[in-house]
Protein: UDP-glucose 4-epimerase
Amino acid sequence: MCLLHIKRAPIISLFLLRIQPENMEGLRSKGCTTAETTHTHPLRSVQLLPIVPFNRVFALVYLCALLALFYHHLQRLLSSITLVSFFINLILFISDLVLAFMWSTAQAARLYPIQREEFPENLDKVVKRSDYPAVDVFICTADPTKEPPMSVVNTALSVMGYDYLTEKLSVYVSDDGGSALTLFAFMEAAKFAEHWLPFCRRNNVMRRSPESYFESNYSSSSETVEIKMMYESMKARVEHVMEKGAIEDEYITSDEEHKIFNQWTHKFTIQNHPNVIQILIANNKNKDVSGHFMPNLIYISREKSTSEHHRFKAGALNVLLRVSAVMTNASVILTLDCDMQSNDPHTLKRVLCYYLDPEIYAKYSYIQFPQHFQGINKNDIYACQFKRAFEIQPMGFDGLGGVDYFGTNCFFSRRAFFGGPSNFVCPEIPGLSPSHEVDKPIQSSEVLALAHHVADCNYEKQTTWGFKMGFRYGSLVEDLFTGYQMHCEGWRSIFCNPNRPSFLGHAPISLVDLLNQQKRWVIGVFEVGFSKYSPLIYGIKHMGLLMSLLYSQYVFWPIWSIPISTYAFLPQLALINQVRIFPKVSEPWFLLYPFLFLGAYGQDYFDFVSAKGTFQMWWNDQRIWTIRGLTCFLFGSFEFLLKSFGISTLGFSLTSKVVDDEQSKRYEQGIFDFGVSSPMFVTLTMAAMINLVALILGLGQFLKGSDSLEGLVIQMFIAGFGVVNCWPIYGAMVFRIDKGKLPVKITLTAAFLTWALYIVASFIFSN
Ligand SMILES: O=c1ccn([C@@H]2O[C@H](COP(=O)(O)OP(=O)(O)O[C@H]3O[C@H](CO)[C@@H](O)[C@H](O)[C@H]3O)[C@@H](O)[C@H]2O)c(=O)[nH]1
Ligand SMILES: [Mn+2]
Structure:
């Protein structure tokens, strides 16, 4: 059976097929020879992006310009007369070296980007519905105050509503917050699901999270009014319980429920408590109001003990992997964060367009869908969409051998958690093996006893969980690390980006939340980049040059802060002191600079708009890139250093999913939100001040008609560019009075430090 149909861009592809990386081999050989036989019902196609030839030629041209630049750099470095000029030249050289390295990593994504398409409508013509594989969904939550249970419940309902064989679907919820309130919300949700699931089926609802459905423009009828009332009353109960912080007796309706909540004894704390595993819906038992079986719904709060490291989300996912192996052991696993929801009930069919092919199942470890977000403001001022990482570069990764794992919206083959495709790592008990057949109902006492055993917090001792099996430990970005390790083991992966987003989620919408989130990522990626698994040492041996280069872009992500900080301060300080550090307009070397700048920015802009971005979005995206360079990249790197020296330990600081009304109003209006006194804002404000001062002084000289100006054009341009980028900061510093303005303390600290920097720089430059 061949389910593959390769569609290629003409002419160039013939050439490209010869030089494409071997990872595409599987797709190619199978596709070419057997596509014709099932041509009438293809399930998928692959296409090379037409931009590829241009990308390759441009990469060559740009490379030549870079070589010229470094020749010029070396020349200047060797001809430096004073120590000061030597150091300035050295800093510029290092910064440009980092830029060039990051450029080369980005090229890896531009050499072979592919786009896939699936045809789930053909599925029924090729396979019987009863042959569909079982699917286990993993949803993680960790704190009921930062991740409101109602929103987690909506996530679960949205996937429980998948258009699939309900007897083959199971939803596992991991609650690292160990909260009875979250469990209460899920017990309510299980009751509501009896009405909600048949309602969605009958009305062919596309967004099966009730909250989003009722926010949308649905057509009102007596049925919708009724179900909405049911939903609102459930929501009111959950929110009431949340407000009280406890479940009052009137909300507990049976002895069984009493027994469940009695597990929360006075000794029960978040850091120290026994396992709670609760089967809320069992698909062999519970039926919805229309008589249909429902998907399994299982709540798990794994055992925690202050003496055992719980390994954050990766630890939670590994518990889910084992408990689900004992209960249902589905061959396909979906991981979902609690801030994501299904936006398309037919997504599983799309996944089957790949996984029904045993060839694909044997070689590909996961199918990653992009993270799309709702509630992003018009121009995405904080660049929350991460278009480059979630949409553009994944196509490049995919063409080379496999997209990285984003931590959510990803369908794994269970087998991939147990060693490479040709190197099976056997779990310590046979009941956890991906090939093990579950033959007992999930509520049976044996199954439950084993489930409790494998969820114990010391179960992993003396096993290879987290190192050779399951989700990987050792990095705060367990997602990137896990996907990376799988690629090193020889797995490939698929990027699937349908027109209608399959998932929609929430991104942080306050600047400080965003920077803190990315500070955690910085630490996490460095934990990979500077480990023995670094792509430049380990990866290159296992995945080849291009894949490891591309991964390097992610694991060395924070080193952007070297060139960004240099270009945010050095040319400006030199300009203030009338010191020239770039070529004059009349020198031929001058031309390199506009070419390199416009070339990089232009290509980036093109990539961005090709992924349905707008000019303003792109502009905001590059602004946030510079802001990151001056804030979370710097501070995260520093924290990573402290951690490496054993001075501090770092945890997974959850991203808050709650915002106040004023904050979201400002966000909707596109106004930057500073508000809190984060030290990260100090460096940012300093850069804003220096750039403004440099530009004003530079313009002053210009009006005076000073001779030296010809040499300072590049510096003037950089300061001007800096000022335009810092625009929102000046407003927040001086003109605004709302709560989101820059705190006075920050402005004053930054002003003092800027002044100190200015004095020191003047002293240095005058010597
Ligand atoms: O000890 C923990 C910590 C977190 N989580 C869950 O992990 C998910 C992601 O946490 P969040 O605070 O939303 O982090 P983000 O930075 O928004 O998440 C991105 O980055 C993470 C890695 O840092 C990935 O795990 C995520 O999938 C990816 O979306 C949430 O569902 C949490 O409930 C746990 O289950 N246990
Ligand atoms: Mn998140």
